[in-house]
Amino acid sequence: MRSLPVADPGTPDARSPLRYLRWVARNQAGPLAGGIAYATLWWLAMALVPLFLGKGIDALRTGDTEGLVTWGAAVFGLGAAQAFTGVMRHRMAVYNWLSAAYRTVQVTARQATRLGATLPKRMSTGEVVSIGNSDIAHIGNAMDILLRGSGAVVAIATVTVLMIRMSVPLGLMVLFGVPLMAAAVAPLLRPLHRRQNAHRELQGELSTRAADIVAGLRVLRGVGGEQVFADRYTAESQRVRRAGVQVASVESVLEGAQILLPGLLIAAVTWLGATFALDGRITPGQLVTFYGYAVFLIAPMRTLTEAADKLTKGHVAARRVVRILSLEPEMTGGTGSSDGGLLRDVASGVALRPGSFTAVAAASPEEAIAVADRLGRYSGGDVDFGDVPLEELPLAEVRRRILVADNGARLFAGRLRDELDVTGGASDDDLAEALHAACAEDIVEALPGGLDAPVAEAGREFSGGQQQRLRLARALLADPEVLILIEPTSAVDAHTEARIADRLAKARQGRTTLVCTTSPLVLDRAEEVVYVADGVVRAQGTHRELLATTPAYAATVTRGED
Question: What is the pLDDT of residues 201-215, one digit of tens each?
Fold first, then answer.
């Protein structure tokens, strides 16, 4: 099988679920057309077997040995063709399934990267996770069923023509019976679509609830809230179960219709064909052919109802994908350039001199975070970088030159070395220096494999303080032009905090650094401290100067203690 496409799949049309499915189909038009061709030949090979079998029976009845051999060989050839085309149809079906599913993964992952901080504000974790858990499978199934569904339509049309040529009444019975069966199934699709959509929404909400519980399990245990959240999860899971039962009730009726309706058609065709055979209007071989076609039609008819079900599910899944693809990032960039210089937030008055080690102490944590978000271009605001407004710079350049590291950053699964050195270009000495500055050497030394030790999901084997120190080491190793740290020592003890404060100032010497904190140990090492209250700068100077001259600052950083 050919390798799956890994190139940039382009930009999908995200205006509607149907347009997205068309975009997926267009991007794999070649394999899709090949699969449809193989599926059509596969169905036709099966559709011609009853015809050739009936002719062979008539040859046997009349004693035509040559005809019997000819038609027997033809049936054998159809069997060989069916085997080959069946294998190729399945291979192309798997290829198209995987291509559609993972093309969806590509575009959603790229969109998530493009949205950045906007994504968690607009969509819950559960909604995003549901795309990778179930939606890609339904989109893949929608592309897969196009192969057999298209071939089934051709097979039904071919059988209808052959039956009309042999017997007009029997052919017309099939010709009108098939659309009537399809029309009988159609009313089930709308409630199925609606119930599947509601079920998916509840599944996304339940996934979000589960992620929240897992992330806050330690806190829940600390306050004794496990049972409360367990009861909430149980109640929500029961809602999901009931919604799933409602979907299954419609699907069960649809499944029953796939057996009942073709069965009724088979019975009618067989009865009428037997009557014609007794009257001499058709031969025994043709009766066998008609019965074979009546039985054969079960498969393509079942495929058509299956196609209706899978295309409906694919449409519901595509709606969730379109929802994330239609989002636009809150922050956009321009095409300007800047040589750097003073980084200044006009709204608050906070300014970072090039190469300085500055600290911001705010009356409330939210104010410091707001300043950091504006300086890092994570929220809108009038910010200058040198003599150029920050909004005029390309967003990729802003992310490369200005790094905002907060305690919401995650550790991912993989080797610790790869987790810390995200670019893959750091030497062992660089890693050692970053770990030393973050006081994280002891964490690495305690691991069996050192830097090559595996990290579990979200770094759950590390304590909160250990995770914070590893995140700090990762930020230092990135070595950006401007580094903005938000409370980088809030989860460590006082002795470790003092060491980090000393080493951090030395590690970032000569490079622009801003630390948002109210820790006296860190503030005392800063070259300049800026005190922010009510969103604006109220005082600035060294830590000791502000302690002596600004009572509000002193109350903030000492928390009212002498």
Answer: 777 677 777 766 666
